[in-house]
Amino acid sequence: MATALAPAFERIVSDPLDVTPPEVWTERRWPEMFAELRANDPVHLTEDSAFGRYWSVTTYKPIVHIEALPKIFSSSWEYGGITVSGDSQGVLEAEVRMPMFIAMDPPKHAQQRRTVAPAFGPSPVEAMKAEVRERTAAVLDSLPIGVAFDWVDKVSIELTTGMLAKLFDFPWETRHKLTEWSDALGDVESFHTVEARQARLAKAFEMGAAFGELWQKKAATPGGNDLISMMLASEAMSHMDEGEFMGNLILLIVGGNDTTRNSMSAYAYGLDKYPDERAKLEADPGLIPNAVQELIRWQTPLAHMRRTALEDTEVEGKLIRKGDKVALWYVSANRDESVFPDGDAIKVDRENARRHLSFGYGIHRCVGARVAELQLHVLLEEMAKRRLRVNVLGEPQRVPACFVNGYKHMQVMLERY
Asked: Do 113 and 255 contact (CB within 8 A), yes or no?
């Protein structure tokens, strides 16, 4: 029985298939739990959790169905946004809603998305390739051979933070602030208490102040091709209020950081876990483009997106009520055996790896997907060029939350093959 001293968000939860507790993710218990949900109750109602009542949708077909119906299943910040942490009923104490275009419904979503989308189109991404390769080569050449180090810190964070700094034209000397803000603002566990929400808000305002200064600098010298300059030149985003400005920054920073960073870490961890697949890739670098898609599928860096039902509706025979939270577990759909046979395993030559839902589906599909793919592709190519292999020295320390499915630290050692 809970004691009076327990934090307010701690509850005795009777549902053994509540997949939101942080220990489910730090202890990597989720694959078995989602397998059970897919087999027995793919649209499952959890009546009580640390985040309240929510539905878990865990198979591929109903997730795609829901994503194709934004008029029924809303992403809007007004109803709690895109994670299970948001309260559908109203704003929590010490919470400030920060609208972002991924947490908007049409037509405003499309207007703001169109502003930043050109930065991630085929031509700009192709133009980034040489610099991404140069930066990746420099990082890899700085790493020790035969000496233990933290792959997450020295490779994954370093490469993704550098790319974010370039996209924003953010001051290079303080670029690691981008990682700090991403970690704090993408943490759904920070919503449980007033104190945690206050700390999160402080980080948001610190980020807002730094980007506000950058915004003013760009406003004085218009015409750049970085993301801030594009926002300034856009009718849809040039007059954002403070909350909307910070919300879109959080989206671009967390999306740009966590997706790529954790896919890079999955490359090291996953191929160490499946040495026969690693051997295939080492023998045939032509498999790299497909392996990139397979690693992104296998890791699924953002485990879920949440929608809110705007009307009573039926999904797979279950009645979802107006106002209900609906968690779309991409991490489970990417292991749906009806689409990805032996989905818990990495197969670098998997024929349909590109069908993964790691970047979402429909109108909210990740706007920066090409940049994420480019960075991972170049990393694998540069590793192959140097004939470098990553050996993982122990189980990684994982992110303790159900939104960002990621790694905090991972000790590795490099060798030549």
From this structure: no
